[in-house]
Amino acid sequence: MSSKLEASKLALMFMTLLSSIGQAAAQTFECLEPAQNKVEERVVGGREADARDFPWQVSVQSTLSGFCGGSLVGRTWVLTAAHCVTRETTGSIPYLQPNVSIRIYRPDNANRPMGEERKVVRAYVHEEYSPDDPAKRHDVALLKLDSGYNFDDDRSLVTPATITTDRVFGVPGACAVVTGWGRISERAAPSAILLKASVPLRSLTECSQAYAGLGIDPGHVCAGYVSGGADSCQGDSGGPLVVRGGPTGWIQVGIVSFGRGCGQPGYFGVYTRVGRIRPWIEETVRRDALIVQRRPD
Q1: β-pair partners for 252
Q2: pLDDT in tens for each of the 297 residues of the chain?
Q3: Cα separation of 155 and 169, whole Å?
Q4: H-type helices in the chain, by residue range?
Q5: ∠ CA(287), CA(288), CA(290), 5° rounding?
């Protein structure tokens, strides 16, 4: 599928999404504090997810950064974190440097990160991302695959939030889900199976207070419990934070970026706010279409 067609499909998905905003209230659900012993699903210490419920989830495996998570936002496009794909990986142009490889894997039948493989041919890191920024602003990258994944329909893709849909679905208190194969505790090994966590979105004020002086801004979204216990962890970076809503059932509001430990009380997981970088996603897909015209894969 061409990049031009993918860009058009992203726009169509957005228009369909707008038509469903009025149904948002009926599509939300509630997270309950782990302290109430009513929530047991969490990536740290967690509960197995069924990859069929999260068909957009992928594993991003790099020769430099080890492995991260990612999400399929197009049949040939993966959304992940910039710190998983550094500028040293791509240089000043999106083609990968010699001796550097990034491979994408969908889950296999046992929910392990070693299913159907694709290679990354171009990697775009947000121009304003800096690895020296402790707040990891603009922590986002787009990966172009050598060939697309085949689905029966586009429900296997997740819809990236826009500023408008983020204001409807990505509100504080909304219950979100984060998935990944990251560590099950701060000192443990990565999980062998895909895990999930249900975590409530927090207000920017709460998050700024938790990370005082760090520079939390509207480009971030935070999620988790004051009591801790449910969170993403190392190896989950780049993975999707999703909320219920939209034409395909789920909207991606965040990309796993960083946090103080994993599931520590008083600290929330910090994510790149997808609604804020949606214009960058669309512009990057358009720029890639021009590259394809000049230089066929």
Answers
A1: 160, 242
A2: 455 555 555 544 444 433 333 333 333 445 655 443 333 333 554 578 899 999 999 999 987 667 899 999 999 999 999 999 987 888 778 988 888 899 999 999 999 999 999 999 999 999 999 999 999 999 999 999 999 998 877 788 999 999 999 999 999 999 999 999 876 655 667 788 898 888 999 999 999 999 998 999 999 999 988 876 555 666 688 999 999 987 778 999 999 998 876 667 788 999 999 999 999 999 999 999 987 666 554
A3: 18
A4: 3-19, 24-27, 87-90, 163-169, 204-210, 274-294
A5: 70
* Dihedral class, residue 66 (left if φ above 0, else alpha if ψ from -120 to 50, else beta): left
- What does the DSSP assignment read for 187-240? TSPBPSS-EEEEEEEE-HHHHHHHTTTS---TTEEEE--TT------TT-TT-E
Domains annotated on the chain, with CATH: 55-156+278-293 (2.40.10.10), 158-275 (2.40.10.10)
Show which residues are catalytic.
83, 139, 237
- The pTM (predicted TM-score) of the whole model is 0.84
